[in-house]
Amino acid sequence: MKKQRRNTSEEQSIIDLYEKEGMSTYQIAEHLSTYPNKIRRTLKKHGIELKTRSEAQKNALSNGRAKHPTVGRKRTTEERLKISSSVCDYWDSMSEDEYKDRCKQAFVRWHAMSEEQRQNICSLAIQAIQKAGKEGSKMEKFVLQELESAGYVVQFHKKSLIPNENLEIDLYIPDIKTIIEVDGPSHFLPIWGEEKLAKQIKADSQKSGLILSKGYLIIRVKLTSDFVSLKSRYELINSLKSLLSKISNKFPPKGKRYIELEL
Q1: What was the pLDDT predicted at 65?
Q2: How many CA atoms does the CB half-sphere of 195 hold within 13 Å?
Q3: In what order do the strands lie in the sheet with 178-183?
Q4: Cα 88 from chain centroid?
Q5: What's the rounded Cα separation, in Å, for the pair 74 and 60?
């Protein structure tokens, strides 16, 4: 009986620290000299909905338990890569049950919004896509910046490369006659419907055919997700640099001038 009372008291203490004191599972674990998973299991056992990482950070900042990590300083590339890697590892090691919980929480948050809020988010998303189409996506700009830093001369959103064809090339490296096309999820998934996807696939195929017929080499970077971690971005850049180095040394024959990289 004594053991049972001790466990109940400890569990109530965990609940109070989490709900009333606003402490995170990591802070509670440190406070009680235990591990975070035990704290999470206890909270779930008593039906306590866990905060998302974002909510926990916001709470820690508001009650003064933590300082904002970016205010007043700029992180180095090494620091950003380390953070990106840890986030990737966190999601990769997440259990199926926890992943489902996360999806459920996102679903609840979305439907808890007003119709006006949801419409505003959708409107901003459409505007962002339209802007990316005109000015280039973040990934395109990232690839441009990194390749230029590596010494390549890159033409961005090049038009009229192929005469009499209304084509715009994402990135063109004239010195080695190489074109890089960065294709987002809408090139592979029916985000805007099956009919638009079929048209997009056909347009991409025709574009690739025209490029190859004029003697250029094309590298298609396939982004199958809207979110690409910084770690994955740099892995892509390293792969591109390796490919471009080989192309510079020896331009491939006709049958090997179409290359795909997938993230």
Answers
A1: 59
A2: 0
A3: 155-159, 168-173, 178-183, 217-222, 258-262
A4: 10
A5: 21
The tokens for 64 are 């003064």
In one-letter notation, the amino acid at residue 131 is: K
Q: What DSSP character marks residue 255? A: G
130-167: per-residue pLDDT in tens?
Answer: 676 666 788 999 999 999 999 999 999 999 898 878 88
d(CA 261, CA 263): 7
Amino acid at 213: S
Domain boundaries, the chain: 1-70, 135-262
Give CA–CA dist 236/172, Å, rounded. 17
Is the pTM of the predicted complex or chain greater than 0.85? Answer: no
For the domain made up of 135-262, the CATH class stated in words is alpha beta
Query: What's the CA gap between 177 and 154, in Å, rounded?
Result: 11
Q: How many residues does the chain have?
A: 263
Higher-confidence position of 26 and 91: 26
Q: Return the SS3 of 218.
A: strand
pLDDT tier at 3 (50, 70, 90 boundaries)? very low
- Of 219, 223, 224, which Cα lies nearest the Cα of 259? 219
Give the residue carrying structure tokens 């992943």.
Answer: 99
The pLDDT mean for the chain works out to 84
Q: CA 181, CA 208: separation in Å to the nearest integer?
A: 9
